[in-house]
Every structure is written in C-alpha cells, then in structure tokens.
Amino acid sequence: MDAGTEAAQTVGWDEDGVRRTAAWRSGSGARPPKRVAPADDRMAADIAYKLVCEGTALLWRGDYHGARQLLAALGRRVDRKPPKRGATARETFHLHRQARSRRARVLGMLLVPLETTPDGSYTVPLRRAPDVGEACTEAYGPAAGPAGACTLVALRELQGVIGAHEWRRKGVPVEALGGDRVHPYYGVFSPVRGEYVDLVARAPLPVPEDGAEAGPERLTAFDIGTGTGVLAAVLARRGVGRVTATDLGERALACARENVAGLGVAGTVEVVRADLFPPEEAGRADVIVCNPPWVPAKPTSVLETAVYDPDSRMLRGFLAGLAQRLAPGGEGWLILSDLAEHLGLRPREQLLEWVAEAGLTVAGRLDARPVHSRATDPAAPLHAARAAETTSLWRLRPAHTPQ
C-alpha cells in the first residue's frame, strides 16, 4: 500500500521580523499546522510542550541532535498520562486509539526544514544533520523546485522515513523463503510478523479436480493485495506454476516487482494493478490468497490503511468475489487475525455469516499464535486481547460449483 502523496500546501510564519513561507510535506497525510514559531536549543522542554499542546508547531533552527532530544522529551511528557481503561475491550481499544492519535498529533508539531539540492535531492540544513537524500527520495520522489527551495516536515515523520530506508536497504529475512530477504518500501506493510507468511508456506495446496496426480506446477494462484510480494514469492517457491499478484498502490506495485525479481521468481509471478481481483482475462485460479487489514476501524493516517479496514471493506470484497474466481477444486486462503474479535469489533459469527452469504464453505483452518512483544508484555496496551490473539488461514471453497 502507498504512503500517499501530499497535496500542494504551504505554511507561513514570522521569523526575524520577516514573513516566511514554505511548502508542507507529509507522506502520512497530516494537515499543515496553522501556527508556526521558530525554536532552537535554548527552548526548555516544558515551554515547548505547552506551545505544541496549544497548537503551535515549532520549526527547529538549532542542532539536529537537539531536536531529537526535544522530541524524546515531548514524548515523555505525553506519556505521563497513559490512556484510561474502558469498561469493555472495545471501549479500551477506542480510548487507546484516541491517546495514540493525540500523541502523534503532539509529536508531529516539531518540524525541520528540508531543502532541495542542486541534483534534485534533499538535505536538512541543520548542524549535525544526517544525510537524508536517498531516504527522502525513496519516500517522496525527486525534490520539487529549484535548488534551495524549502519544505517543512515533522521530525517524527523524517525519522520514520530514515528508518524505512534502513529496512529497505537491509531487508527483512523471511524463514519461509529460506532466510532470503524481502525489502519493503516506505509505507508498504513489512512482513515482520512472520506467522501469516508461515501459514501460507505450510497450508496444503489444493488438487485440481482433473489432476489428482498433478504437481504444483499445474496450479495457478492470485495474491490479493500483495504489498511487498512476499506471499506471491512463497507460492512461487512452493512450485505453483503461475501467480498473479495485485495491488492498487503504485509504491506497493514497484516494491513487489523488485522483490519478486530479487527472489528469482519474476518468471512465475506477474504483478498487476487491480482493486482486489485481477482482470477477468486472468481467468480463475486454484489458490487465491488474501491477507486484508485485520481491524475494522477507520485509519487516522494514510500509513494506517495497512492495519485498519473501515467496515471490513477489503475482507468483504474478497469474500464476495471469491467463488466466481476459483477454478474447480480450488481454495481461497483468507489470512486473518482474530484480534478484532477479542476487541469486540467484529464477532466470529459475523465473519462466518459473510462466508456463507458469499456462497462459500470452510474446508479447514490453520492457526498460529503471534510471538511479537505486545503479546507477552503485561504492561502493553490491549495486552489481554493481544495475549489471546490467533492468526488463522481459513481454507474456503465454493459451497456450490460456480457455473
């Protein structure tokens, strides 16, 4: 999924008796601040915290490491008041999200300048600032405007851009691919939680109705919402003869194409732009896999669309179209965490009702327990739901053979 592109917006502020303006940049879709004041290493953290809480963004003019220290100090002050626990898991979830949204809003008020370099890249014109050119070009594309043109970006976002560049450069090792690495782009969901990938690696491949002795090379597959392309690559490595991977985001499509090429499966995997299923001319597939966002809630930024799916749109769309795109004897593999059930956001009965309404039946299910730190840390928000979470691969078949 793409991190999104920002609209052409500007920010204005007074500095040294002069009215200044700069373009606003936000890959996460944040709105530009209405008030901006210059700040540097002389500003106390308590004063800075008061200003940002009142809605004044701070444009940093001091040492870059001083900005990092101030951001950490602001974070400590926000965290002094942890979110309340609700009477139900659902209420606790919404209170937690409200607190996270406020934290992101407050920390997003510390800004740094980005300037265009003569070669169309980026630089941060602050003392001891890191080289951000390659990271920002990956996230935002080539810099716009003449050399010296200035844009403003939240330091917190810039740190995320730098971190994403390191993830992309180093890659994420995937056990199901023999330890080979997948290289996620900025804003594309990274396979750091490997349990859903492992489920695809060990689920039994279906046997076509006309080929009981056939090997996997006769099979075709669709990977819906491919992201990095990791699941398409796993299917190809398992011997599936042809895989069509779809996504809507241009960044995700580029990411998937790079990864399938790097993993040596570009001859098997075709990456195409589509909303859910590939065009009708792709026909039907023996395996159709989908790992939709797991939580039916509204994302508060473009980056959250990999996790939050309002009204379960992608999940319901996948189920509704699945039966008509499966080949005889084929299976749909729905990979879904039950976290939403433990949070009271979507009961299991609702999921099974959608499955039945789509003319599908459950042929089997494989389960995996998460191993990430939030599932084992009693102090983590939503620990009870995280500790009970199970990720499942639902094997779905048409209740009746499609005509």
TrEMBL record:
Signal peptide as annotated in the record: none
Alphabetical keyword list: Methyltransferase, Transferase
Gene3D superfamilies documented for this protein: Vaccinia Virus protein VP39
Gene Ontology MF: a single term: nucleic acid binding
Coiled coil: none
GO BP field: methylation
CDD domains given in the database record: AdoMet_MTases (cd02440)
Methyltransferase small domain: residues covered: 221-335
SUPFAM superfamilies for the chain: S-adenosyl-L-methionine-dependent methyltransferases (SSF53335)
Alphabetized Pfam families for the sequence: MTS
PANTHER family: HEMK METHYLTRANSFERASE (PTHR18895), MTRF1L RELEASE FACTOR GLUTAMINE METHYLTRANSFERASE (PTHR18895:SF74)
The protein's name in its UniProt record: Class I SAM-dependent methyltransferase
